[in-house]
Amino acid sequence: MVKMAKKLSKEPYKGVRDFYPEDMFALNYITDVMRESAERFGYVEYSASLLEPTELYESKTSEEIVNEQTYTFTDRGNRSVTLRPEMTPTVARMVAARRRELSFPLRWYSIPNIFRYERPQKGRLREHWQLNCDLFGVSTIEADVEIISLANEIMKSFGAKDEDFVIKINSRNALADLAKKANISSEKQNELFRLIDRVEKMKPEEFKQELENLTGKNAEAVKRYMEGEEVPEDVASILQALAGRGIKNAIFTPSIARGFDYYTGIVFEVSDTNPENNRSLFGGGRYDNLLENFDEESIPAVGFGMGDVTIKEFLESRNLIPTYISSTDLYICVLSDEAKQEAQEIAGVLRSEGFNVALNITEKKVGEQIKKASKDKIPFTLCIGDDEIKSRKFTLKNLINEEETQTSKEGIADVLKGSSS
Ligand code: HAM
Hints:
Elements: H1 21-40, E1 44-45, E2 51-53, H2 63-69, E3 71-74, E4 80-83, H3 88-97, E5 106-110, E6 113-115, E7 127-136, H4 141-157, E8 165-171, H5 172-181, H6 189-197, H7 204-215, H8 220-227, H9 233-244, E9 250-252, E10 266-272, E11 280-286, E12 301-307, H10 308-317, E13 330-334, H11 339-352, E14 357-359, H12 366-375, E15 380-384, H13 386-391, E16 394-398, E17 404-407, H14 412-420
Parallel strand pairs: 1-5, 8-9, 13-14, 13-15
Antiparallel strand pairs: 2-4, 3-4, 5-7, 6-7, 7-12, 8-10, 10-11, 11-12, 15-16, 16-17
The structure holds histidyl-adenosine monophosphate.
Protein backbone atom coordinates (compact mmCIF):
# COMPACT_ATOMS: atom_id res chain seq x y z
CA MET A 1 0.00 0.00 0.00
CA VAL A 2 1.18 3.54 -0.74
CA LYS A 3 1.72 5.52 2.42
CA MET A 4 -0.40 8.71 2.35
CA ALA A 5 1.47 11.91 3.00
CA LYS A 6 0.25 14.10 5.86
CA LYS A 7 -2.68 16.22 4.66
CA LEU A 8 -1.99 19.92 4.24
CA SER A 9 -3.67 22.48 6.46
CA LYS A 10 -6.71 24.24 5.01
CA GLU A 11 -6.02 27.35 7.06
CA PRO A 12 -4.39 30.41 5.52
CA TYR A 13 -1.11 31.65 6.99
CA LYS A 14 -1.53 33.16 10.47
CA GLY A 15 -3.12 36.60 10.50
CA VAL A 16 -3.99 36.81 6.79
CA ARG A 17 -7.32 36.18 5.10
CA ASP A 18 -8.65 34.12 2.24
CA PHE A 19 -11.23 36.04 0.27
CA TYR A 20 -14.12 33.81 -0.82
CA PRO A 21 -16.53 35.51 -3.27
CA GLU A 22 -18.66 36.98 -0.44
CA ASP A 23 -15.52 38.39 1.24
CA MET A 24 -14.26 39.73 -2.07
CA PHE A 25 -17.64 41.38 -2.61
CA ALA A 26 -17.30 43.22 0.74
CA LEU A 27 -13.66 44.19 0.06
CA ASN A 28 -14.58 45.43 -3.41
CA TYR A 29 -17.47 47.42 -2.01
CA ILE A 30 -15.14 49.08 0.51
CA THR A 31 -12.37 49.81 -1.99
CA ASP A 32 -14.90 51.07 -4.57
CA VAL A 33 -16.28 53.62 -2.11
CA MET A 34 -12.71 54.64 -1.18
CA ARG A 35 -11.71 54.97 -4.83
CA GLU A 36 -14.80 56.96 -5.86
CA SER A 37 -14.46 59.35 -2.91
CA ALA A 38 -10.76 59.99 -3.56
CA GLU A 39 -11.39 60.57 -7.25
CA ARG A 40 -14.26 62.97 -6.46
CA PHE A 41 -11.65 65.17 -4.76
CA GLY A 42 -9.37 65.00 -7.79
CA TYR A 43 -6.95 62.35 -6.46
CA VAL A 44 -5.39 60.06 -9.07
CA GLU A 45 -4.28 56.48 -8.53
CA TYR A 46 -0.69 55.21 -8.35
CA SER A 47 0.73 51.88 -7.28
CA ALA A 48 4.02 50.11 -6.60
CA SER A 49 5.42 46.69 -5.79
CA LEU A 50 4.94 45.31 -2.31
CA LEU A 51 8.69 44.55 -2.23
CA GLU A 52 10.98 47.36 -1.12
CA PRO A 53 14.64 47.51 -0.14
CA THR A 54 14.77 47.29 3.67
CA GLU A 55 16.80 50.50 3.95
CA LEU A 56 13.72 52.48 2.87
CA TYR A 57 12.30 51.97 6.36
CA GLU A 58 15.45 52.32 8.36
CA SER A 59 15.28 56.03 8.94
CA LYS A 60 12.44 58.24 10.01
CA THR A 61 9.54 55.87 10.04
CA SER A 62 8.52 54.04 13.18
CA GLU A 63 10.92 52.16 15.40
CA GLU A 64 8.22 49.76 16.50
CA ILE A 65 7.29 48.88 12.95
CA VAL A 66 10.85 48.55 11.68
CA ASN A 67 12.19 46.56 14.64
CA GLU A 68 9.23 44.41 15.50
CA GLN A 69 6.73 44.31 12.69
CA THR A 70 8.41 44.00 9.32
CA TYR A 71 8.57 40.92 7.15
CA THR A 72 12.16 41.06 5.99
CA PHE A 73 14.17 38.46 4.10
CA THR A 74 17.35 38.16 2.08
CA ASP A 75 16.82 37.51 -1.61
CA ARG A 76 18.93 35.21 -3.77
CA GLY A 77 21.15 38.13 -4.70
CA ASN A 78 21.87 38.83 -1.02
CA ARG A 79 19.73 41.97 -0.87
CA SER A 80 17.62 42.70 2.18
CA VAL A 81 13.99 42.98 1.10
CA THR A 82 10.95 44.07 3.13
CA LEU A 83 7.23 43.61 2.42
CA ARG A 84 5.90 47.16 2.74
CA PRO A 85 4.57 47.81 6.27
CA GLU A 86 3.03 51.11 5.08
CA MET A 87 2.85 53.08 1.83
CA THR A 88 4.20 56.48 2.89
CA PRO A 89 7.94 55.77 2.35
CA THR A 90 7.12 54.28 -1.08
CA VAL A 91 5.08 57.26 -2.24
CA ALA A 92 7.72 59.64 -0.88
CA ARG A 93 10.36 57.74 -2.89
CA MET A 94 8.21 57.85 -6.04
CA VAL A 95 7.53 61.59 -5.74
CA ALA A 96 11.20 62.35 -5.02
CA ALA A 97 12.25 60.31 -8.07
CA ARG A 98 10.16 62.45 -10.44
CA ARG A 99 10.03 65.74 -8.58
CA ARG A 100 11.22 67.70 -11.60
CA GLU A 101 8.63 66.33 -14.00
CA LEU A 102 5.66 66.32 -11.63
CA SER A 103 3.42 69.34 -11.35
CA PHE A 104 2.53 70.28 -7.81
CA PRO A 105 0.24 70.20 -5.92
CA LEU A 106 -0.04 66.47 -6.41
CA ARG A 107 -3.13 64.63 -5.28
CA TRP A 108 -2.43 60.90 -5.23
CA TYR A 109 -4.16 57.83 -3.85
CA SER A 110 -3.48 54.12 -3.75
CA ILE A 111 -5.06 51.03 -2.15
CA PRO A 112 -2.09 48.72 -1.51
CA ASN A 113 -1.94 45.61 0.65
CA ILE A 114 0.27 46.19 3.68
CA PHE A 115 2.13 43.64 5.81
CA ARG A 116 2.87 43.93 9.52
CA TYR A 117 3.96 41.17 11.85
CA GLU A 118 1.45 42.05 14.58
CA ARG A 119 -0.38 39.85 17.05
CA PRO A 120 -3.62 39.13 15.19
CA GLN A 121 -6.58 40.54 17.11
CA LYS A 122 -9.75 42.56 16.54
CA GLY A 123 -8.94 45.21 13.94
CA ARG A 124 -5.33 44.05 13.53
CA LEU A 125 -4.09 41.48 11.04
CA ARG A 126 -0.82 40.70 9.32
CA GLU A 127 -2.05 41.75 5.90
CA HIS A 128 -4.59 44.48 5.22
CA TRP A 129 -5.57 46.80 2.42
CA GLN A 130 -5.03 50.48 3.08
CA LEU A 131 -6.32 53.49 1.21
CA ASN A 132 -3.57 56.13 1.16
CA CYS A 133 -4.50 59.67 0.16
CA ASP A 134 -1.66 62.18 0.09
CA LEU A 135 -1.35 65.77 -1.03
CA PHE A 136 2.16 66.97 -1.91
CA GLY A 137 3.47 70.47 -2.40
CA VAL A 138 1.26 72.66 -0.20
CA SER A 139 2.51 73.83 3.19
CA THR A 140 -0.51 75.92 4.22
CA ILE A 141 -3.44 74.61 6.23
CA GLU A 142 -5.54 74.50 3.05
CA ALA A 143 -3.95 71.12 2.42
CA ASP A 144 -4.57 69.78 5.94
CA VAL A 145 -8.17 70.92 5.72
CA GLU A 146 -8.66 69.26 2.34
CA ILE A 147 -7.20 65.96 3.53
CA ILE A 148 -9.41 65.91 6.63
CA SER A 149 -12.44 66.91 4.54
CA LEU A 150 -11.72 63.99 2.25
CA ALA A 151 -11.46 61.63 5.24
CA ASN A 152 -14.82 62.94 6.41
CA GLU A 153 -16.32 62.58 2.92
CA ILE A 154 -15.29 58.91 2.75
CA MET A 155 -17.02 58.19 6.05
CA LYS A 156 -20.14 59.93 4.74
CA SER A 157 -20.00 57.99 1.48
CA PHE A 158 -20.05 54.78 3.52
CA GLY A 159 -23.30 55.99 5.06
CA ALA A 160 -21.84 57.03 8.44
CA LYS A 161 -23.51 59.89 10.27
CA ASP A 162 -21.76 62.73 12.11
CA GLU A 163 -22.52 61.13 15.46
CA ASP A 164 -20.98 57.79 14.41
CA PHE A 165 -17.39 59.02 14.32
CA VAL A 166 -15.11 61.73 15.60
CA ILE A 167 -12.02 63.28 14.04
CA LYS A 168 -9.37 63.74 16.73
CA ILE A 169 -6.69 66.28 15.94
CA ASN A 170 -3.43 67.17 17.64
CA SER A 171 -0.32 69.14 16.71
CA ARG A 172 3.18 67.67 16.48
CA ASN A 173 4.47 71.28 16.58
CA ALA A 174 2.81 71.80 19.92
CA LEU A 175 4.14 68.45 21.13
CA ALA A 176 7.66 69.38 20.00
CA ASP A 177 7.39 72.71 21.89
CA LEU A 178 6.27 70.76 24.89
CA ALA A 179 9.27 68.47 24.65
CA LYS A 180 11.49 71.53 24.54
CA LYS A 181 9.77 73.02 27.58
CA ALA A 182 10.21 69.75 29.41
CA ASN A 183 13.94 69.86 28.54
CA ILE A 184 13.77 66.74 26.39
CA SER A 185 16.49 66.61 23.77
CA SER A 186 15.33 66.48 20.16
CA GLU A 187 16.64 62.90 19.87
CA LYS A 188 14.43 61.87 22.74
CA GLN A 189 11.30 63.75 21.73
CA ASN A 190 9.95 60.78 19.78
CA GLU A 191 9.91 58.84 23.02
CA LEU A 192 7.61 61.48 24.46
CA PHE A 193 5.33 61.28 21.40
CA ARG A 194 5.16 57.52 21.71
CA LEU A 195 4.39 57.73 25.42
CA ILE A 196 1.59 60.23 24.79
CA ASP A 197 0.25 58.01 22.02
CA ARG A 198 -0.14 55.17 24.53
CA VAL A 199 -1.76 57.22 27.32
CA GLU A 200 -5.27 55.88 26.77
CA LYS A 201 -4.04 52.31 27.03
CA MET A 202 -2.16 52.97 30.29
CA LYS A 203 -3.12 53.31 33.93
CA PRO A 204 -2.79 56.97 35.05
CA GLU A 205 -0.06 56.13 37.60
CA GLU A 206 1.87 54.22 35.00
CA PHE A 207 1.75 57.17 32.60
CA LYS A 208 2.79 59.56 35.35
CA GLN A 209 5.72 57.34 36.27
CA GLU A 210 6.97 56.97 32.68
CA LEU A 211 6.51 60.68 32.07
CA GLU A 212 8.57 61.50 35.12
CA ASN A 213 11.26 59.05 34.06
CA LEU A 214 11.46 60.88 30.76
CA THR A 215 11.11 64.49 31.87
CA GLY A 216 12.31 64.49 35.45
CA LYS A 217 10.88 67.47 37.26
CA ASN A 218 9.57 69.04 34.09
CA ALA A 219 6.45 66.94 33.66
CA GLU A 220 4.04 69.75 34.59
CA ALA A 221 3.79 71.33 31.14
CA VAL A 222 3.01 67.96 29.60
CA LYS A 223 0.36 67.20 32.19
CA ARG A 224 -1.25 70.58 31.61
CA TYR A 225 -1.26 70.04 27.86
CA MET A 226 -2.87 66.63 28.31
CA GLU A 227 -5.79 68.28 30.08
CA GLY A 228 -6.67 69.70 26.68
CA GLU A 229 -7.78 73.13 27.74
CA GLU A 230 -5.36 75.13 25.63
CA VAL A 231 -5.94 74.33 21.98
CA PRO A 232 -2.73 74.80 19.94
CA GLU A 233 -2.97 77.55 17.36
CA ASP A 234 -2.59 75.34 14.28
CA VAL A 235 -5.27 72.95 15.51
CA ALA A 236 -7.60 75.85 16.32
CA SER A 237 -7.28 77.25 12.78
CA ILE A 238 -7.99 73.86 11.27
CA LEU A 239 -11.01 73.26 13.49
CA GLN A 240 -12.36 76.65 12.49
CA ALA A 241 -11.82 76.01 8.76
CA LEU A 242 -13.45 72.57 9.05
CA ALA A 243 -16.44 74.05 10.87
CA GLY A 244 -16.71 76.55 8.00
CA ARG A 245 -17.09 73.57 5.69
CA GLY A 246 -19.78 72.05 7.85
CA ILE A 247 -17.50 69.52 9.56
CA LYS A 248 -18.36 69.79 13.22
CA ASN A 249 -17.27 66.43 14.61
CA ALA A 250 -13.56 67.32 14.72
CA ILE A 251 -12.03 67.93 18.15
CA PHE A 252 -8.65 68.76 19.65
CA THR A 253 -7.37 65.59 21.35
CA PRO A 254 -4.02 66.00 23.15
CA SER A 255 -3.48 62.22 23.42
CA ILE A 256 -3.26 61.66 19.65
CA ALA A 257 0.44 61.59 18.80
CA ARG A 258 0.67 58.76 16.19
CA GLY A 259 3.51 56.28 16.06
CA PHE A 260 5.52 57.53 13.11
CA ASP A 261 8.60 59.69 13.51
CA TYR A 262 8.07 61.52 10.22
CA TYR A 263 5.05 63.63 11.21
CA THR A 264 5.86 67.32 11.55
CA GLY A 265 2.54 69.20 11.79
CA ILE A 266 -0.99 68.18 12.59
CA VAL A 267 -1.75 64.53 13.26
CA PHE A 268 -5.27 63.11 13.30
CA GLU A 269 -7.23 59.95 13.87
CA VAL A 270 -10.82 59.09 13.10
CA SER A 271 -12.49 57.03 15.83
CA ASP A 272 -15.72 55.12 16.20
CA THR A 273 -17.99 56.78 18.79
CA ASN A 274 -19.49 53.43 19.77
CA PRO A 275 -18.19 52.89 23.34
CA GLU A 276 -17.78 49.18 22.61
CA ASN A 277 -15.42 49.89 19.74
CA ASN A 278 -13.85 53.19 20.63
CA ARG A 279 -10.66 52.40 18.78
CA SER A 280 -9.09 54.33 15.99
CA LEU A 281 -10.43 53.57 12.51
CA PHE A 282 -7.70 55.34 10.58
CA GLY A 283 -5.28 58.24 10.74
CA GLY A 284 -2.68 60.47 9.21
CA GLY A 285 -0.94 63.78 9.41
CA ARG A 286 1.51 66.25 7.91
CA TYR A 287 5.04 65.11 7.10
CA ASP A 288 7.05 67.95 5.57
CA ASN A 289 10.55 66.46 5.83
CA LEU A 290 10.27 62.87 4.66
CA LEU A 291 11.35 63.61 1.10
CA GLU A 292 14.64 65.00 2.41
CA ASN A 293 15.70 61.38 2.80
CA PHE A 294 15.95 61.14 -0.98
CA ASP A 295 16.94 64.60 -2.09
CA GLU A 296 18.46 67.85 -0.93
CA GLU A 297 15.16 69.61 -0.92
CA SER A 298 11.98 68.62 0.79
CA ILE A 299 8.37 68.78 -0.35
CA PRO A 300 5.57 69.46 2.13
CA ALA A 301 3.06 66.64 2.36
CA VAL A 302 -0.04 65.62 4.26
CA GLY A 303 -2.11 62.46 4.04
CA PHE A 304 -3.72 59.51 5.75
CA GLY A 305 -4.03 55.74 5.65
CA MET A 306 -7.38 53.98 6.08
CA GLY A 307 -7.42 50.21 6.53
CA ASP A 308 -10.09 47.82 5.29
CA VAL A 309 -10.21 45.75 8.51
CA THR A 310 -11.16 48.50 10.95
CA ILE A 311 -13.56 50.17 8.54
CA LYS A 312 -15.27 46.83 7.80
CA GLU A 313 -15.85 46.21 11.50
CA PHE A 314 -17.28 49.72 11.81
CA LEU A 315 -19.59 49.22 8.81
CA GLU A 316 -20.72 45.75 9.92
CA SER A 317 -21.61 47.02 13.38
CA ARG A 318 -23.91 49.56 11.73
CA ASN A 319 -25.27 47.34 9.00
CA LEU A 320 -23.71 49.48 6.30
CA ILE A 321 -22.33 46.76 4.03
CA PRO A 322 -24.68 45.78 1.20
CA THR A 323 -25.89 42.18 1.07
CA TYR A 324 -23.91 39.92 -1.25
CA ILE A 325 -25.22 39.51 -4.77
CA SER A 326 -23.37 37.71 -7.55
CA SER A 327 -21.69 39.72 -10.26
CA THR A 328 -23.36 37.29 -12.69
CA ASP A 329 -26.62 38.83 -13.91
CA LEU A 330 -28.24 35.74 -15.35
CA TYR A 331 -28.04 31.97 -15.04
CA ILE A 332 -29.42 30.06 -18.02
CA CYS A 333 -30.88 26.66 -17.17
CA VAL A 334 -30.85 24.20 -20.05
CA LEU A 335 -33.66 21.64 -20.16
CA SER A 336 -32.85 19.51 -23.22
CA ASP A 337 -30.11 18.71 -25.67
CA GLU A 338 -31.90 20.68 -28.39
CA ALA A 339 -31.95 23.75 -26.16
CA LYS A 340 -28.17 23.81 -25.74
CA GLN A 341 -27.54 25.62 -29.00
CA GLU A 342 -30.28 28.21 -28.38
CA ALA A 343 -28.97 28.80 -24.86
CA GLN A 344 -25.42 29.36 -26.17
CA GLU A 345 -26.71 31.85 -28.72
CA ILE A 346 -28.77 33.83 -26.23
CA ALA A 347 -25.83 33.88 -23.79
CA GLY A 348 -23.53 35.13 -26.56
CA VAL A 349 -25.85 37.99 -27.55
CA LEU A 350 -26.42 39.07 -23.95
CA ARG A 351 -22.68 39.00 -23.19
CA SER A 352 -22.00 41.17 -26.19
CA GLU A 353 -24.52 43.64 -24.75
CA GLY A 354 -22.56 43.77 -21.52
CA PHE A 355 -24.41 41.29 -19.31
CA ASN A 356 -22.64 38.64 -17.24
CA VAL A 357 -24.18 35.31 -18.13
CA ALA A 358 -23.46 31.81 -16.81
CA LEU A 359 -24.87 28.75 -18.50
CA ASN A 360 -25.64 25.31 -17.13
CA ILE A 361 -23.24 22.70 -18.51
CA THR A 362 -24.25 19.78 -16.29
CA GLU A 363 -26.85 17.06 -16.72
CA LYS A 364 -28.60 18.17 -13.52
CA LYS A 365 -32.40 18.41 -13.35
CA VAL A 366 -33.92 21.85 -13.82
CA GLY A 367 -34.88 22.16 -10.15
CA GLU A 368 -31.28 21.66 -9.15
CA GLN A 369 -30.05 24.11 -11.75
CA ILE A 370 -32.38 26.78 -10.35
CA LYS A 371 -31.31 25.92 -6.82
CA LYS A 372 -27.67 26.41 -7.77
CA ALA A 373 -28.39 29.84 -9.26
CA SER A 374 -30.25 30.82 -6.13
CA LYS A 375 -27.52 29.51 -3.82
CA ASP A 376 -24.99 31.50 -5.83
CA LYS A 377 -27.18 34.63 -5.41
CA ILE A 378 -27.50 35.22 -9.14
CA PRO A 379 -30.34 37.72 -9.59
CA PHE A 380 -32.04 36.13 -12.64
CA THR A 381 -32.65 32.68 -14.07
CA LEU A 382 -33.92 31.80 -17.52
CA CYS A 383 -34.99 28.25 -18.40
CA ILE A 384 -34.68 27.12 -22.01
CA GLY A 385 -36.33 23.91 -23.17
CA ASP A 386 -38.26 22.63 -26.16
CA ASP A 387 -41.40 24.61 -25.18
CA GLU A 388 -39.52 27.92 -25.14
CA ILE A 389 -37.90 27.20 -28.49
CA LYS A 390 -41.27 26.38 -30.03
CA SER A 391 -43.31 29.21 -28.50
CA ARG A 392 -40.50 31.83 -28.76
CA LYS A 393 -41.59 32.94 -25.28
CA PHE A 394 -39.09 33.03 -22.43
CA THR A 395 -39.66 33.37 -18.70
CA LEU A 396 -37.15 35.25 -16.56
CA LYS A 397 -37.34 34.68 -12.84
CA ASN A 398 -36.10 37.31 -10.44
CA LEU A 399 -34.41 35.65 -7.47
CA ILE A 400 -34.95 38.56 -5.12
CA ASN A 401 -38.69 39.22 -5.45
CA GLU A 402 -39.53 35.88 -7.09
CA GLU A 403 -41.37 37.74 -9.87
CA GLU A 404 -41.63 36.02 -13.24
CA THR A 405 -41.62 37.97 -16.49
CA GLN A 406 -42.52 36.52 -19.86
CA THR A 407 -40.77 38.06 -22.82
CA SER A 408 -39.57 37.51 -26.37
CA LYS A 409 -35.92 36.69 -27.00
CA GLU A 410 -35.25 40.31 -27.88
CA GLY A 411 -36.91 41.51 -24.66
CA ILE A 412 -34.61 39.59 -22.27
CA ALA A 413 -32.03 42.39 -22.10
CA ASP A 414 -34.70 44.94 -21.15
CA VAL A 415 -35.94 42.81 -18.28
CA LEU A 416 -32.38 42.40 -16.98
CA LYS A 417 -31.73 46.12 -17.37
CA GLY A 418 -34.99 47.04 -15.66
CA SER A 419 -33.78 45.38 -12.50
CA SER A 420 -30.49 47.21 -12.38
CA SER A 421 -31.90 50.67 -12.98
P1 HAM B 1 -1.14 53.78 10.47
O1 HAM B 1 -1.93 54.48 11.54
O2 HAM B 1 -0.04 52.90 10.89
O3 HAM B 1 -0.66 54.89 9.47
O4 HAM B 1 -2.12 52.92 9.60
C1 HAM B 1 -3.24 53.51 9.00
C2 HAM B 1 -4.44 52.63 9.17
O5 HAM B 1 -4.21 51.35 8.59
C3 HAM B 1 -4.81 52.27 10.61
O6 HAM B 1 -5.52 53.31 11.24
C4 HAM B 1 -5.68 51.07 10.39
O7 HAM B 1 -6.93 51.43 9.80
C5 HAM B 1 -4.89 50.36 9.30
N1 HAM B 1 -3.95 49.38 9.87
C6 HAM B 1 -2.67 49.57 10.27
N2 HAM B 1 -2.11 48.45 10.71
C7 HAM B 1 -3.06 47.48 10.58
C8 HAM B 1 -3.11 46.08 10.86
N3 HAM B 1 -2.08 45.42 11.36
N4 HAM B 1 -4.26 45.41 10.59
C9 HAM B 1 -5.32 46.05 10.07
N5 HAM B 1 -5.34 47.37 9.78
C10 HAM B 1 -4.23 48.08 10.04
C11 HAM B 1 0.14 54.69 8.38
O8 HAM B 1 0.40 53.59 7.94
C12 HAM B 1 0.59 55.96 7.68
N6 HAM B 1 1.59 55.59 6.68
C13 HAM B 1 -0.61 56.66 7.09
C14 HAM B 1 -0.30 57.91 6.34
C15 HAM B 1 -0.42 58.12 5.00
N7 HAM B 1 0.15 59.04 6.86
C16 HAM B 1 0.32 59.95 5.90
N8 HAM B 1 -0.03 59.39 4.77
